[in-house]
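so im writing up the methods section and need the Tetratricopeptide repeat protein record in one place, dumping it here so i stop losing it
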Amino acid sequence: MTDPSNKAGAFNKLSYLVIDDFENFRLSMRQMLRSCGADNIELVANAAQAIQICTYNHIDVVLCDYNLGEGRNGQHVLEELRHKKLLKRSSLFLMVTAETSKEMVMGARENQPDGYLTKPINRAVLEQRLSALIDQRTALYPINREIDRENYPEAISLCLQTLPKQPRYRTWLMKTLGDLYFRLGDLAHAAKIYDEVLNQRELSWARLGRSKVLLANQSYDQAVDSLRQLITKHPDYMEAYDLLADGLERQGKVTEAQRVLEQAVDHSPKALLRQRQLAELAEANQDMETAAEAWRRTVSLGTHSIHDCAEHHLALGQSLSELSEGDREPEGADRAHEAIAVLNRMEKRFSDRDNIGLRSRLIQCRVHAGQGNQQDAEKLLAGIEQAIESTDTLDAETGLDFAKTLFRVERDKDAKALLAQLAERFSDDADVVQRIENLLDEPVGFRQKLQARTLNRDGIKAFESGQLRTAAEAFSRALAVVPDHAALNLNLVQVLMKEHEADSNNTELLKQCRECLNRLEGLPEQHRQHRRYVALCRKLEGLTA
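--- predicted struct ---
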């Protein structure tokens, strides 16, 4: 039998923080903790006070109510404490709640609390739950201390020493070992740990860890299959969805990756970072409807979150701008109005951020242009140009956004000149160079991009099946949408040259080739299509000599 005095001593050594908006509950919790032997107890009513306490004091045990009235809730508190690393690994965070809805539990679980306490709480339940957690904390404290210090080799050594001495904590120790080996890049030992566990029992965390090792070893097919099986057996295991989406992206299956994240946010809708990931993936897939909805949720969830930032609001404004462009129906007008409202609220909220007002006005300018409000667009653009003239140097993000806006108001020459300047300034930044190329190729809205890409795919498919005339027609129709697209022009040139092989007297085919290549005269050497462009120019010279 456990000595009650030892229990009281264990409670007495720790510091406690109770967070609840009801004073009676705070006082009741303090009384129960004192009766268990605790002495160092802080009581606060809201998230701001809790974060302040944890910033300047080490807290061993946090007991936080999920509902804290207006403003941030318990999930936000835990999220911020984890993000700012204000809780040590040895600290305990218990979510206290009278609410047990799946949405709440799933949202809170994303940040991994150490346990839950369901109201009403009595002394016996509190002591039982805390005693077990404190015992584990005490036994594993040396390991957690070394992990906090990022001394992973020592933490591994301590885990291995503790395994035979503390068999009751074997699961925790094996999970921690696998994670530590993975952090150190020792994939072989990490895999060995996960396999040892899986050979004895199918545990979700071990299956997830084994899949992480497979992904790190670029065994994408095996990892994806493993994760699909894991989700089938445990549909609420959210980490598996994130890892599966990552694996599918690495396979180049971005549409499938998006579908996986859509499933994930259906299961756990309150995870801001996953909503953001879904929004970015949907944008990459040109699925602007899904992107806008995911950005809308990201912005909403960010209201009280440490992860809130101006970029989320800008992205929402941008996606609504894309959707409203050229749409003169009531839905298009509604989206345009929403975009303007989102951006105006953002400017007030993040007024201290550099270039926020400028980037906001650039998107608003495109919104007005897309709705045919040319006078409003030109007025905004005049102010934007004046602001940019007084700026010493334009950062890449704002510069690209400015070029996109110039294209939208049909000032293509100015846009291309600006992109040439940016290409020279950021020639060492592969990501910026790639985005410049993309904008030069497709300086249009997402609907036109989709149309051109579909026609391009049709053209490639027809070319591969030997249907040259059908391919040429598809590429020509795509070029009517994006006439300066480098790859499309070169695709058409290749088809026309192939047609010329069968009909060498048809000089009209070579004339069309020359027109396509002339469009690309200013193609920068850094462009990924430049070598192909040069090769086809030489080939045309040979055919016309």
